[in-house]
Every structure is written in structure tokens, then in C-alpha cells.
């Protein structure tokens, strides 16, 4: 990453189609800057060794989208966009022999190391782009991602093909993203976040740019149908699509997610899929 991008200021918002490299570079810049605040604000909600799928608080121990946790015992799991590795530590606690976390942000991985040292559960991590995974074909029994990478990547179909490549036949994939319907609404937790502003069908990414037009933050949009086609186009079959409801006892406001909106519209979509045996 170039230092000048790290120091650049956001000058305008664009709606356009960014390239893969541009998206990875923007995510790296944004998460290097935000990692400390993100972990300080959300670390307690996420837990050090818990697998939380999103702001609603649904956990993998309740949802079981990667299957029976007992089946993970002895397995090798990849977590994409692992941040501070909270999900990976939970998977290790279920008996997964190896969990590898990749993240484009080194600062996020520093937080993973910090929690490793505090908990004594050390994860293997690597700074890498989800769009170009540094692993052999069929290297993992399962791949997961809780809001890691997929909400930001412009070409979801290509990213899912890359993910499917490293999954062994019969292996499971589960990942969460902002629910596509949220794209229509302002990203605000209050009443103003309940009025439709943008077209659900407008696939142009949201891009924050500096004065030279360089991307500093990229968020991408796929409709529900786009996600389904990207999953099946990657040779996987969809086993579930979970839209967690907002629990009455969750009073947390997380960015544009809130109890007010959570009662009315879905905030998170979690896709679960399998790679066919013999693929
Ligand atoms: C919202 S955070 C989620 C982190 C973690 N899964 C959690 O639940 O806290 C998104 C993470 O995805 C990472 N990320 C974004 N784009 C990525 C990419 N192209 N490749 C790998 N990681 C990426 C970010 O650096 C960040 O750590």
C-alpha cells in the first residue's frame, strides 16, 4: 500500500464499477485505518472466540450453517476476511485441527494476534486478497466468512469461483453479507433509514474517492438473484439462505443496523452452500 493513499482524504462519493485491484486496495486502506476503532467498538459484542454472523447476533452455534460442529473436528477451515479471528477461534474450540484466516488488512491481523496472546488460542493468518487466494485447489474442508470481503468485492461470481476452487468436494461454504434489500435505504439506524432512496436494481458500487478519483472505500451490491447465480455458477449448490430476525433483547446499534430497522427489514443475508461430491 502506498503511503499517499493512507493519508488521502475522501473528497466525493461516486457510483461506478471499480476493478478488482482497486477494490482490494480500497478495502486495505479503509480497514488499516478503521481496525482499531472497529475492534474497540464491536470487540465485546463479537467475543474473543465466538462465531457471530452479523449485527443481529445470530451465532454459528445456533445456526449451524457449516453443519454439525462435531463434523468440523479434525478438519481444515479457511476464514475469509477474518478480521481479529473471533470466528476462527470458535471453530478451533469445536475441534477443527487447523483454521487459516486471511484478511487484506494487516492491522486487523495484528488484532487477531493480540487476542491469540490473551486467549492462548493461536490462529494461522495471512494478509491476502479474497479474490486471489494463496492456497491449493481443494485445500479446505470448509470455508466461512462473516461479513468478510464479500460485501466489498465487485465481481462476486469470480470471488465465489475462487472460493469454490479451494474447497474440497463435499465441503461446505457459508458467508454473510449486508442483506441486498438494504441497498435501497440510506445507511442510517433511525427513521430516515426506512425510506427507499435508491434502486435495488442499480448494481453500481458505492465508492468513496479522493481528489484524484482514487478509491478509498468500495462497497458492492448484488441482488439476491445475483448471489444465487454466483453460487451456482461457481459449481456449488445452495443449501440455505438465512435472514436473521432482530432479537428483542438486542439493543445494540451498529452503523445503520438498529432495533428500529431490524424489526421491519432484514439486515443480513447468510448464504450456505456445498460443493458436490465428485466435483
Ligand atoms: C466487517 S469486517 C468483518 C471481520 C470479521 N469477520 C468480523 O466479523 O469482525 C470485514 C473484513 O473483511 C476484510 N476484507 C475486505 N475486503 C477484503 C478482501 N478483498 N480480501 C480479504 N479481506 C478483505 C477487511 O479487512 C475486514 O477485516
UniProtKB/TrEMBL annotation:
<dbReference type="Pfam" id="PF13649">
    <property type="entry name" value="Methyltransf_25"/>
</dbReference>
<protein>
    <submittedName>
        <fullName>SAM-dependent methyltransferase</fullName>
    </submittedName>
</protein>
<dbReference type="InterPro" id="IPR050508">
    <property type="entry name" value="Methyltransf_Superfamily"/>
</dbReference>
<dbReference type="GO" id="GO:0032259">
    <property type="term" value="P:methylation"/>
</dbReference>
<keyword id="KW-0808">Transferase</keyword>
<dbReference type="GO" id="GO:0008168">
    <property type="term" value="F:methyltransferase activity"/>
</dbReference>
<feature type="domain" description="Methyltransferase">
    <location>
        <begin position="77"/>
        <end position="171"/>
    </location>
</feature>
<keyword id="KW-0489">Methyltransferase</keyword>
<dbReference type="InterPro" id="IPR029063">
    <property type="entry name" value="SAM-dependent_MTases_sf"/>
</dbReference>
<dbReference type="InterPro" id="IPR041698">
    <property type="entry name" value="Methyltransf_25"/>
</dbReference>
Amino acid at each position: 500500500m502506498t503511503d499517499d493513499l493512507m493519508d488521502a482524504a475522501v473528497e466525493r462519493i461516486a457510483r461506478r464499477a471499480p476493478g478488482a485491484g482497486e477494490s482490494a486496495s480500497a478495502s486495505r486502506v479503509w480497514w488499516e485505518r478503521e481496525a482499531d476503532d472497529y475492534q474497540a467498538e464491536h470487540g465485546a459484542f463479537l467475543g474473543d472466540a465466538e462465531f457471530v454472523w452479523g449485527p443481529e447476533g445470530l451465532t454459528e452455534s445456533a445456526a449451524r450453517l457449516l453443519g454439525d460442529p462435531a463434523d468440523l473436528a479434525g478438519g481444515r477451515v479457511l476464514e475469509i476476511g477474518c478480521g481479529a479471528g473471533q470466528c476462527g477461534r470458535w471453530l478451533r474450540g469445536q475441534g477443527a485441527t487447523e483454521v487459516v484466516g486471511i484478511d487484506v488488512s494487516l492491522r486487523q491481523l495484528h488484532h487477531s494476534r493480540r487476542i491469540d496472546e490473551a486467549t492462548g488460542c493461536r490462529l494461522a493468518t495471512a494478509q491476502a486478497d479474497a479474490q486471489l487466494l494463496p492456497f491449493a485447489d481443494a485445500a479446505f474442508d470448509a470455508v466461512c466468512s462473516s461479513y468478510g470481503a464479500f460485501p466489498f468485492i465487485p465481481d462476486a461470481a469470480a470471488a465465489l469461483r475462487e472460493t469454490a476452487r479451494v474447497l474440497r468436494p463435499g465441503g461446505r461454504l457459508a458467508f454473510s453479507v449486508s442483506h441486498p434489500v438494504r441497498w435501497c435505504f440510506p445507511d442510517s439506524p433511525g427513521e430516515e433509514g426506512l425510506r427507499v432512496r435508491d434502486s435495488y436494481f442499480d448494481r453500481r458500487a458505492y465508492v468513496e474517492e479522493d481528489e484524484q478519483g482514487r478509491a478509498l472505500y468500495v462497497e458492492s451490491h448484488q441482488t439476491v438473484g445475483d448471489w444465487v447465480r454466483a453460487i451456482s455458477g461457481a459449481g456449488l449448490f445452495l443449501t440455505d439462505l438465512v435472514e436473521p430476525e432482530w432479537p428483542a433483547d438486542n439493543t445494540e446499534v451498529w452503523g445503520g443496523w438498529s432495533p428500529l430497522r431490524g424489526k421491519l427489514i432484514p439486515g443480513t443475508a447468510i448464504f450456505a452452500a456445498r460443493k458436490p461430491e465428485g466435483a
